[in-house]
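User: Hey, quick favor. My workstation is busy. Could you predict this chain's structure for me?
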Amino acid sequence: MLWYARALVILGIVLSLGSASQAQTPDPQSQPPPAEETRPEAKLAVFDEVWQSVRDHFYDRTLHHLDWTAIRDKYWPLAAAAADEERSAVINRMLDELAASHTRYYTSADPAYYQLLDIFAGPLRRELRRAFPDGQVIYPSIGIFTQRSADKTFISGILDGFPAAKAGLLVGDELLAADGTPYHPIQSLTAKVNQEVTLQVRRSLDAPPHEVVVVPQQTKPNEAFLKAMQESARVIHTHGVAVGYIHVWSYAGTQYQRLLEHEIFSGALKEAEALVLDLRDGWGGAQAHYLDIFNAQGPTVTMADRRGDVSVANVKWRKPVVMLINGGTRSGKEILAYGFKKYGMGEVIGTRTAGAVLAARAFLLSDGSLLVLAVNNVFVDGERLEGVGVTPTLEVPFTVEYAQGKDPQLERALEFLSRSVRG
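Assistant: No problem, here it is.
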């Protein structure tokens, strides 16, 4: 896929990602990058950097038939008048005029900033050291995904094995406060790595708030997603059937596919009679050939040397499988969902995917902020999924707010697979 070689397809942001903070120690390796320059002229210089990058690199030469100079004239005064915390919103309103996925401006006040920097760490290797001197993106987190609804913040995903899961937080919990101040995904945890933070949480609409104590930890984003994927792999026994489950939070790297192959061939999922592949939320980046694992045709080759070290090629899953998708399934994951459905590999359960299928490039700007910009159009089997998405074969709605940890989409998948295995 030539377009993939030129630009990494990533999952566009749909949720505010896991909480983050910085430690009190002056060690630069444990600190987020310095706060962006607050002088108005510096901020407006970044506004112009964003505007020029779009003009020079956006995948559509016509800029979707916009008068881009007029767009600058429209938003420049708004950016000049905006306070620092509001200027990012103005820039993103300008980018929204393009009506394109994978086109967004981020600052270090947003957890997604760190996620994307790590995803694009390779192409940004030299520039990255301006923000992280050792070249390693690291930030504190409790391992959650959140989404905003009616000016409230709800947990929409929890990474297995991370502080939020250990503390007993649930999907659907409303986050109200942290140590007595309004909850913010970065500021609430700043300088509190390895320290207790008391979150005020509401579990149902009419319930009184209760307290949950969490301990933020330093996190390298890509490693965290790989660990959470491995921790998620388990067998669920339902109606006498052993159903394997694994959640791929990020597909932006071959290490995630290698882990999937390991888990189904010799790991936690080896003895499962069926499989739930969860592609909901998180990041994209998947390559189309990852679906080959579910193509039963072709042999699996195992080699063992004299020391007993085993290597495997062309791993296959030849048992029933279901894929879970939702509105947070984006980019490369949508390509997998499209092929999985079209070529009849199994049922696709959940809700329509985001329709965010363009290829992106990252630009680290002069003040350390980040622009992710769509630089390639993408077609899948000649079809354009941007703005369209993939519909499931079995529609199962899921309202996150006050879900109390319940997951109707997973429950439907388990029910379907248990019946399939029992014949």
